[in-house]
């Protein structure tokens, strides 16, 4: 294999990285500026996440990864960040309690801007323009000026990521995440929904347990795990110029870490073995995820794992399956068998969003809640019957009361509702109610798998 450097990807073919910046020298100046900016995460934090994912790979923990399809400059607001953080905390409580396992929380946040698009152009009323590619590249407004890639957007995205990271750290460790506050994590707008009622009942049980523990001398003051939480960040490592600029040598280990996020993932459209994205990812020490979908054969998957995780380190690789509810049961078993046969350590996670996107007659991209849940269930069934641990989920979601995905039992979103609060900059997201409902459904299924497993072990 050729020598890896943070820039060795530049010698390989690259998909979905814009090549039409009008001023290439300006892009290069921006990248140089970024190289001098502080890291957004520390290598030690990425190592800790890798360890925690190692526990997931071993079936001892569960991964909850979620956030916007695309962060945007427009929706950047502390309230939005708080709402996302708290709905993930609620989901984590539900999953921890239901599955009886620790939950590793990873946001699609603080850097999730650049988007691969299925078409390089967008046509509206006979007018054709380059597609919107994420706020760190060009603008969403449908005008020729706005669609021109602008390098300055990378600096703005860095600034927004830094401020986001700062607030997330404060939420995670500054008191908000104290388990004594679980009642306060409910969102105003979902008050009165069946999910909120269920969540409140769960909080009461947890409070009773906390009171008991406190009487035994275990308090948030004495036990830091009760007063703070670990919250990690991730995004698709798409714009490799940006990722290269954020990649630094860790002074403790002398190894390279991409300090733009704790975890990076390779998208379904950029995971070619001999292309730039795989080349870049193979050299960094961060935990890496890879989206897998239709068309990926076991042979190729094994080759990718040889390149990305030659030492078969547990926690290094998360495979995020994104097939669609009607395809996952057909494609996943052969891959799961191949991985198991080869003794490869991976985290198996399910993205039930990207294979379930449909377009309504009125032109909205949406995803039906029932299909999303069906894909998660089938994913779990397949892995369980292949003797693998269905270790995680990956959602596009928001804490806002949006109407982007159809269905959900609390306040079912109907087709005619989609237009009322459809705010996403790219794909349709679950709203907080839908996300919490999914967490309850998944916790139930996970709990039953764990009971079965317990019965098998004691038989
Ligand atoms: C995404 O996660 O937003 C995405 C583009 O997914 P995929 O690579 O699986 O299509
Ligand atoms: Co998406």
Key descriptive features of the protein:
single chain; 459 residues; alpha/beta; TIM Barrel; eight-stranded parallel β-barrel; two-stranded antiparallel sheet; 14 strands; 39% helix; globular; binds phosphoenolpyruvate; binds cobalt (II) ion
CATH class assignment? Alpha Beta
Strand order, main sheet: write it out: 1-2-5-8-9-10-11-14
Q: Could you say how many structural domains there are in total?
A: 1
The CATH superfamily title: Aldolase class I
Strand % is: 5-15%
Uncertain parts = none
Distance between the first and last residues' Cα: 49 Å
Bound molecules: phosphoenolpyruvate, cobalt (II) ion
Number of strands: 14
**Overall shape:** globular
Which structural category do the helix and sheet elements fall into? Answer: alpha/beta
Largest sheet: 8 strands, parallel, barrel
Output the CATH topology: TIM Barrel
The total of helices stands at 12
Any idea what the radius of gyration is?
A: 21 Å
Order of helices and strands: HHEHEEEHHHEHEEEHEHEHEEEHEH
The CATH architecture term is Alpha-Beta Barrel
Q: Helical amount among residues, as a percent range?
A: 25-40%
Binding site for phosphoenolpyruvate: 108, 291, 322
Catalytic activity: D-erythrose 4-phosphate + phosphoenolpyruvate + H2O = 7-phospho-2-dehydro-3-deoxy-D-arabino-heptonate + phosphate
Binding site for Mn(2+): 69, 354, 396, 427
Cofactor: Mn(2+); Co(2+); Cd(2+)
